[in-house]
């Protein structure tokens, strides 16, 4: 993953997320999250696997870390395809906001794409 400073500038440092590399104080990585809404105002949530170390079996919106060289829009396009088989175009991605989490050491861009998924294709959806 690319490492960023507190102002979200790349530092030039790269770490391996699966190694013992750790972010130092003042270093951050990029994360992206999609709140998927269809034209019927239903939100698609997924349930985390029981084997997840953090928050097993909890409901969540699809999210993930950016890999080296990737921006948050590229990452969420990849994550939605990998995890849910959903495709959407860059122009269908509505940027909502960025959050900086000093404890998690990340910047999280929240994207709200409108994707006409059918709730019958997924186990659970909740309605707004």
Structure in words:
This protein has a single domain (2-127), classed as Nucleoside Triphosphate Pyrophosphohydrolase (Alpha-Beta Complex). The strands form four sheets. Strands 8-3-10-9 form a four-stranded mixed β-sheet, with helices on one face. A three-stranded antiparallel β-sheet has the order 4-5-11, with no helix packed on it. With 128 residues, it is mainly beta. It contains one helix and eleven strands.
Task: Provide a short characterization of the protein structure.
The protein is mainly beta and 128 residues long. The protein is built from 1 helix and 11 strands, in the order ββββββββαβββ. β9 (93-101) and β10 form a beta hairpin.
Detail the topology: elements first, then pairings.
Layout: E1 2-4, E2 10-14, E3 29-34, E4 36-37, E5 42-44, E6 46-47, E7 59-60, E8 62-65, H1 72-84, E9 93-101, E10 106-113, E11 125-127
Parallel strand pairs: 3-10
Antiparallel strand pairs: 1-2, 3-8, 4-5, 5-11, 6-7, 9-10
- Helix-strand pattern, N to C? EEEEEEEEHEEE
Which structural class is indicated by helix and strand composition? mainly beta
With strands numbered from the N-terminus, the spatial order across the biggest sheet is 8-3-10-9
CATH superfamily: Nucleoside Triphosphate Pyrophosphohydrolase
Q: How much beta, percentage-wise?
A: 35-45%
Poorly predicted ranges: 124-128
**Total domain units:** 1
What would you say the CATH architecture is? Answer: Alpha-Beta Complex
Summarize model confidence as the mean pLDDT. 88
Query: Strand tally, please?
Result: 11
Computed over alpha carbons, the radius of gyration is: 15 Å
